Amino acid sequence: MENQSIISFDEFQKFVEANPSVCFYLSTPKCNVCKILKPKVVELIGTKFPQIRFVYVDLNEAKEIAGQLSVFAVPTILIYFDSKEVIRASRNISLEMLGEQIERYYQLMFE
């Protein structure tokens, strides 16, 4: 799975429109929880949901994205299907619950 990064809101919107499903991982490099959680989210998406594109967003470089999407806490995970945000998880994230939520939409879309 490629590890792509986006820094402008215009790039963000174009990426959402160009892909049927995207997982955005929004955090900052100094967030220790984010550093531990990110590889686990990458693994979850890569193994269970291979059709979902994973994108990392560094909020230190992408302040416009944080403002436009009302992201006030890190880490924040945004899942988009058909250009619509369907899942938003912030701060205290359960990977098990996140996987269950994604699975519902994923099955409707790809299976």
UniProtKB/TrEMBL annotation:
Q: Name one GO molecular function term.
A: isomerase activity
Q: Known SUPFAM superfamilies for this protein?
A: Thioredoxin-like
What sequence ranges are listed for the domain Thioredoxin?
9-102
The molecule here is called Thiol-disulfide isomerase/thioredoxin-like protein
At the top level of its lineage, which domain of life is listed? Bacteria
Task: Tell me where the transmembrane regions lie.
Answer: none
Q: Which UniProt keywords apply?
A: Isomerase
